[in-house]
Amino acid sequence: MKIGAILTLTATNGKEADSSESGKDAARKRRRFLSNTPDVKLDVLGKSLLDRTIEKLEAAGVEATTVIPEGPAGTQLLSTRSLLSDDFISAWERAVAEWVQQGVGSLLLVSTGGYSDLDFEELLRFHGDRGAALTQAYAADGSLDMAVVNANFLRDVNGAYRKTLSGLISDQERFFYGGYVNRLRKPQDFRRLTEDALSGKCDLRPVGTEVGPGIWFGSGAEVDESCAIDGPAFVGAGTRMAACCNISGGSAIERDCEIDCGTTVEQSWILQETYVGLGLNVRRSIVSNQKMFHLDRKTEIAISDPRLIRATKSLPFARAGAALLNKLQIAN
Known about the structure:
Spore Coat Polysaccharide Biosynthesis Protein SpsA, Chain A; eight-stranded mixed sheet; alpha/beta; about 30% strand; UDP N-Acetylglucosamine Acyltransferase, domain 1; six-stranded mixed sheet; 6 helices; 28 strands; 2 domains
């Protein structure tokens, strides 16, 4: 049976744990911090959540995936509410029509607002065994915005496919998933995902080579022999760490970063293509180009001094060199 998939990239989930802020204000803050890069395109331990999701779909037997960028924030997968944009609805309807015309038996509908370890193959098997028209996945706290529809119910449809799917909801089968779920509603959730992955609490795995217990290096990472790394930790592909740097507390430094001499990174996440300057102490923070978010204070700081934080450039370090396992100080 041919299986197709439509993957919707949600712009930003507007829900925020802090009840003192409106959903709109919270969403605005997260957009400001994670600007220029949609959440699912951010590298998490060496690979974006978008790429990881597509790989999981392929492993489940999906022949191809249609990706529709930026669905409105906070919408449900099968929503028919008016806040959906006309452009988004048109693109989604066209994608469904193309899959139906290609003769798929099942169509997976997935939204990328969060992360879970759900096995798509298991979901598809459950859907097939029940002979359902529509099966939707649920966690303990609600829908996971993942559904499977029997494409036979979408053939010879007059009108919008969304309306047809809405009519199937009342008779849907519910696939209850009890595994790892992270809704990724705020910056702290992204940091928790990197910690959970490094400590083995979820199935997300670092992309690279494990050079020591719980310590991962991506391809081409350069770490000076004087650096000290206390695992679990991740250093992404093409990242360079200069002399006397220290990494600890389950920290992750993504690809193509530059960490300058004497800087300490503790319990933090450094986003891709970020330069962190000389002798800094980065603790309990998420750092991106010209921005730092403190996880405990829930405060974002704009950094205007390029000597402290900026986008990466090809600059020589005082003592940069390729990591040699027999010289690098890897703490146990």
